[in-house]
Amino acid sequence: MTTVAEIQDAVREARRVRVRGGGSKPALSLRDCEDDAQLLNLSTLKGVVEYQPDEYTFTARAGTSVAEIGAMLAEEGQYLPFDPPLAERGATLGGTVAAGLSGAGRYRYGGIRDFLIGIRFVDGQGQEIRGGGTVVKNAAGFDFPKLFVGSLGRLGVLTELTFKVFPQPPAFATVTADFGTLSDLLSALDAVTRSAIDLHAVDFAPAEDGWTLWVRIGGLLAALQERVEALQAVVTAGAGETRRLTNLFGQDDDILWQQARSMTWLKDGMALVKVPLTPQRIPAMEEAVSGCNLASRRYSVGGNLLWLGWPDEAVPALDGGEQDEPQDLHSLLLGLNMQGLLLLGRGRRAPEPNNGDNADSGEDPLLGRPLQNAFLKRIAAALDPAGKFDPW
User: Fold this and answer.
1) Which of 86, 97, 153, 379 is 20 to 30 A from 63 via CA?
2) Alpha helices in the chain (DSSP H)
3) Which of 24, 26, 19 is nearest to 42 (CA)?
């Protein structure tokens, strides 16, 4: 699909529609669908429509890659502060919005919904609709942009998006601290997040013999060293025992957070699940996943988001031998009353429909507690009365 008119015609003629962008999240874009569902490939609907560096906004088509946008903004000293993940895997703007994905930078500046200010989309009747605007301060009608963040293609086909952007800090630095126990790390985390220091990102993950905390700050290079020392003091004062404390500047800092965005810490053959939570629920999560030795975790946004690597039953055993039946992650999340979104890997089999609706029984990327939102269902019914997109 290279034009909006082609998308409109396809939506009008098809009984069911599913959208694919850059293919960076195959659990969402390549899962099984009904035989008569048409897959709309939007990877060719790309290009920057308008970029106004002085206004700190740009408009681009939905299939435009996040990496291309990042390079364009960098030339003007600007960036998307929410650190959109999976750019190196080919993530597009439309797919990032539809999946509702934000990276570590969300800690300070907010997530993708705080930077998306306007959209164009094709609804279930083949009409192109505009929501929001192209300036930072606007009150242009119904707030469709926020509704489409995390909508997973269930409200319409995104065709064009407008974002606001920020000036990029001239330099970054990261304080890295190692702890022997989760309790020590959480104590340090509490002290860091309560401090008056402006933090750009706060991530942590289990290490071979304990836990590692990464805290990122940004600003003028001349002032960074003094701020790093102040941050180190907060980390050590807040923890029961700090095993090791190091600083990363320049390229070392860039590499660390690029690896976080691209998920290179994820082992081959593992599924990737996004799990929203709070720091208070981390001990229960760790206890629940302790039975899966292969599980890998990276907590982000100060402990409010978990990127969970989980054995994918669709691939062979990682060591080439027999692989035990992986623990049922859907049931695990249900037991914790949490929700997960599968991005890489194979989804659980959805139950067969028994109410005469148009739901298929394909692979469901939503895990754990069911999503129940009567408001979104009403919106979907208005935008897609014939049920051409995946149901809520």
Assistant:
1) 379
2) 4-13, 26-29, 66-74, 93-99, 106-109, 144-148, 182-194, 221-238, 250-262, 282-289, 329-335, 374-383
3) 19
Instruction: Identify residue 367 by its one-letter amino acid code.
Output: L
Give the tens place of pLDDT for each residue, 146-189: 999 999 999 999 999 999 999 999 999 999 999 999 999 999 99
Structural domain of 111: 4-167
CB 263 within 8 A of CB 307: yes
Do 16 and 158 reside in the same domain of the chain?
A: yes
Cβ atoms of residues 253 and 221 within 8 Å: no
Q: How far apart are CA 105 and CA 74, in angstroms?
A: 16
Q: Where are the beta strands (DSSP E) in 115-195?
A: 116-122, 128-132, 157-164, 166-167, 171-179
Residues 267, 68, 114, 166, CA torsion sign: positive
At residue 91 the predicted structure's pLDDT band, cuts being 50, 70 and 90, is: very high
Whether residue 293 is contained in a domain is answered as yes
Reduced DSSP (H G I as helix, E B as strand, rest coil) percent helix, strand, coil of the chain, to 5: 30, 30, 40
Radius of gyration of the chain (CA): 22
Has residue 368 been placed in a domain?
Answer: no
Q: Which of 118, 134, 167 is the last residue of a domain?
A: 167
Q: How far apart (Å, rounded) are the C-alpha atoms in residues 215 and 192?
A: 8
Residue 187 belongs to a domain: yes
Query: Which of 325, 346, 367 lies at the terminal end of a domain, its last residue?
Result: 346
| Residues 307 and 192 occupy one common structural domain | no
Whats the size of the chain, residue-wise?
A: 392
